[in-house]
Design brief:
By secondary structure, this protein is of the alpha+beta class. The protein is built from 10 helices and 13 strands. The strands form 2 sheets. An 8-stranded mixed sheet has the order 4-3-2-6-5-1-11-12. Strands 7-8-9-10-13 form a 5-stranded mixed sheet, covered by helices on one side.
Length: 306
């Protein structure tokens, strides 16, 4: 067994480890851990404590993947619900589809009785209002006026100091199943409807019990363009070592023209339960969480620099 999560996953890592140690399946344990992160008001990258889009709306993305069946479930631009990871899993288990977005995702969430949570925290709302006020804009008018141009505003509001992070979990259970889960609010002050890599299967996360699983954080636009998570698993399938597979994926990313590549972080577990976490050009140390059965508790470790 092994459990790997990024630094944002701190709130749920101990619970997921405990469940795995007790014999729970990987997907059950991953979902339980991520739900705790989604409910943590101190986390700014998912849930009610996270940064909204430029209109002040929380639009959340999530995905899960069963590496044994290779079934996936994902939701994107979902508003008004507390636990997108559970809704993503329900998509996988209750529909013949893989991804639902926007109003369709919300309709499905209502139909299955998913827990609602439609409001941002007071601290997040205050930050959003301050940003608009600094640009001479009235928040209520902006939200109500559908004709208001947003392209330049969304670009100008971009703040590299705010998280563009994601909660990602990769786990292999006692039965050998390897699964992935991810949840995020995406880019702070994003253009409404923006999808990052999280709900794009094979970009933000991918799991195949036969070879390995990978998940990415930070600027999803880059890993979408390179199909990074799926590429790493494919490199493993082709016989690359874990280190060579990650290096090849990093090379793919660095060959992209334009975009913001710095701090993109790759997390990988292979079928031999080896792991690797690397960050491209970090501005500060990047950390992740690791648990294996020989550990008393999950350990926080520093990612390598790519």
């Amino acid at each position: 067994m092994i459990l790997l999560a990024n630094g944002e996953g701190a709130s749920g890592i101990a619970t997921t480890a405990r469940l795995l140690a007790g014999g729970s399946g990987a997907l059950d344990a991953i979902e339980a851990g991520i739900r705790l992160v989604e409910a943590d008001p101190n986390v700014r990258s998912v849930g009610p404590g996270s940064w909204p889009n430029i209109l002040g709306e929380l639009q959340l993305d999530a995905a899960v993947m069963d590496g044994t069946t290779r079934r996936t479930g994902a939701v994107g631009a979902l508003a008004g619900f507390a636990h997108p990871v559970s809704i993503a899993r329900a998509v996988m288990e209750r529909l013949p589809h893989e991804i639902l977005v926007g109003d369709g995702a919300a309709r499905f969430a209502r139909e299955i009785g998913a827990e609602t949570d439609a409001t941002a925290s007071e601290a997040v709302d205050a930050k959003w209002r301050a940003i608009l006020a600094a640009k001479g804009l009235d928040p209520e008018r902006l939200s109500a006026d559908c004709s208001q141009p947003l392209i330049d505003l969304a670009r100008a509001a971009m703040d590299p100091e705010l998280v563009r992070d994601t909660t990602v979990y990769l786990a292999r259970d006692a039965a050998g199943n390897l699964c992935s889960g991810a949840s995020t609010s995406g880019w702070a002050w994003k253009y409404p409807g923006r999808l990052g890599d999280t709900p794009i299967i094979g970009a933000g996360a991918y799991a195949d019990t036969r070879y390995g699983a990978a998940a990415c954080t930070h600027t999803g636009e880059m890993t979408i363009r390179a199909g990074t998570a799926r590429a790493i698993v494919l490199y493993l399938k082709l016989g690359y070592t874990l280190g060579d597979a990650v290096a090849a994926a990093v090379k793919d990313l660095k060959e992209l023209a334009g975009g913001q590549l710095g701090t993109v972080t790759i997390h990988v577990v292979d079928h031999r339960e080896q792991h690797k976490v690397v960050c491209i050009d970090p501005t500060e140390p990047i950390f992740y969480w690791l648990w294996t059965p020989d550990m008393v508790q999950p350990e926080r470790r520093a990612a390598e620099v790519a």
